[in-house]
């Protein structure tokens, strides 16, 4: 087994499939994968002081502060399962989050790129679990109200409309692209064509970051 430590950050516009690919790569490397949403939910469930603070913020319909987001990430990296690497999905999202993230450095930054029309098409037919946030596709036979493997229920997000999707894509272009450009200057960005099957994109990512093809 390779002794290389993989600290892989995934970025991509809404609907790019980065969450799916992050999980697949994590399984292949035998390292944990997580995103800020998951870390917030875990903190809330723990009923810690920070978790209670996050719960109050979420119930007010607000976003957690950059300081809290960074602290959640820092605490997660203290767990022993990250000793040989980890996969981070979608963080930092903007300049202020990047400024607060000072305690580690990614080894690879994977950017999954898809055309805007592909993003709109995918998001308009996706369902999300109300418990674990796993994403499902209607075209695969899933319907609103179906049960997720975690026993949560599938629903269609109210902001998965063409107008709302376009707004989120604009935010990605304005806020997140500059973060990616900063990592690109360090020579650690790997841009992946995100159009194709899940398996095809998985192979593209593995090849880009130097993993051997599966037999």
TrEMBL record:
GO terms for molecular function: AMP kinase activity; ATP binding; zinc ion binding. Zn(2+) binds at residues 129, 132. It is found in: Cytoplasm. One of its GO terms (cellular component) is cytoplasm. It catalyses: AMP + ATP = 2 ADP. AMP binds at residues 41, 62-64, 90-93, 97, 157, 168. Keywords: ATP-binding, Cytoplasm, Kinase, Metal-binding, Nucleotide biosynthesis, Nucleotide-binding, Transferase, Zinc. Signal peptide: none annotated. Pathway: Purine metabolism; AMP biosynthesis via salvage pathway; AMP from ADP: step 1/1. GO terms for biological process: AMP salvage. It comes from the Bacteria. Residues 35-64 are annotated as: NMP. PANTHER family: NUCLEOTIDE KINASE. NCBIfam families: adk (TIGR01351). Consists of three domains, a large central CORE domain and two small peripheral domains, NMPbind and LID, which undergo movements during catalysis. The LID domain closes over the site of phosphoryl transfer upon ATP binding. Assembling and dissambling the active center during each catalytic cycle provides an effective means to prevent ATP hydrolysis. Some bacteria have evolved a zinc-coordinating structure that stabilizes the LID domain. This is Adenylate kinase.
